[in-house]
Design brief:
The chain is α/β, with parallel strands linked by helices and about 160 residues long. It has one domain (about 1-160): P-loop containing nucleotide triphosphate hydrolases (Rossmann fold), CATH 3.40.50.300. Helix content is about 55%, strand content about 15%. The protein is built from 8 helices and 5 strands. Strands 2-3-1-4-5 form a 5-stranded parallel sheet, with helices on both faces. The longest helix has 19 residues, at about 125-145. The protein starts with a strand and ends with a helix. The model has no long low-confidence stretch (mean pLDDT about 95).
Length: about 160
């Protein structure tokens, strides 16, 4: 069984992914962490050093490599992963996709207080972040909605996800 968690940055993909993988008895891979380890560089350095287009190609190749290597895995994708190339189609044809849907206000709160450095929002004020996140979320929504399952990610209970399988 392959499971892919998709959603906007700070929607809880990594946190939920670790817990769900444990419940399902699957290995867990955070796609961003996989890329950072493979290239020995942070996502931020890859984006700023190689450019966003090259990063998206690296992301696609990494996703394909994980799918080809593992029949049983839970992958937490990057927020933009489903929106480029044929990544969403590939994930849907390779396993179960779950969209963790979270409202804009909650996403902005989480992003403002996130410990992790997120290159696409670095240095933005709360107001700028809200405008940016709203615009980006609207652009990505069509791709996210192609997931086989959509769940409210705000106060998600892992057992409700387990029941999908």
């Amino acid at each position: 069984m392959r499971v892919f968690l998709i959603g906007f940055m700070a929607s809880g993909k990594s946190t939920v992914g670790k817990k769900l993988a444990k419940k399902l008895g699957l290995p867990f891979v955070d796609l961003d962490n996989y890329i950072e380890n493979k290239y020995n560089a942070t996502i931020r350095l890859l984006i700023y050093g190689k450019g966003i287009d090259i990063f998206r190609e690296i992301e696609k190749e990494s996703l394909e490599a994980l799918i080809n290597k593992h029949e049983n895995i839970l992958i937490s994708t990057g927020g933009g992963t489903p929106c480029y190339f044929d990544n969403m189609k590939l994930m849907n044809s390779s396993g179960d996709t779950i969209y963790l849907e979270v409202d804009l206000h909650t996403l902005v709160d989480r992003l403002m207080y996130a410990k992790q450095d997120r290159p696409l929002i670095w240095g933005k004020s709360r107001e700028d972040l809200t405008v940016y996140a709203k615009d980006l979320l609207e652009k990505r929504q069509n791709d996210y909605k192609k997931a086989k399952h959509s769940v409210n990610g705000k106060n998600l209970k892992i057992d409700s996800l387990v029941s999908l399988f």
